[in-house]
Amino acid sequence: MKLNDLRDKDGATHSKKRLGRGIGSGSGKTAGRGVKGQKARSGVAVNGFEGGQMPLYRRLPKRGFNNIFAKSFVVVSLARIQAALDAKKLDAKATVTADALVAAGVIRRVKDGVRILSDGDIKAKLAFDVAGASKAAIEKIEKAGGSVKLPEKAAAE
User: What is the DSSP letter of 37?
Assistant: First the structure.
């Protein structure tokens, strides 16, 4: 096989329709757009328009709200951390931080912090410095001889 032998399989590419090129082409005159009206013109965007009927998105009630102050934590299970330890990606002697988890490939990005959940078990004695952890996860870590350092909650004023 040579580079000049390379080509697409038959039928893989379609030649584009040449619109408005005479009546004999089958798509001449109105070029497949029908006759007159808003949609026959250029620059039409009528998404969600239901011909004057009240559109669905306005018929349905509004519900809930979006909390702009909500924090988005990356969730990590104890099983995932133990797997990283077994694969020698995490150092058991060093403190486990968000940056250490990113470097080990356990998580992709930090977002607003890392929260540890109690899925699975942990065997190693680890020190964690993370944004959050569930009660069950803290119990399992402390039972294995480790410790969890969480940020202090700011005093509500």
Answer: S
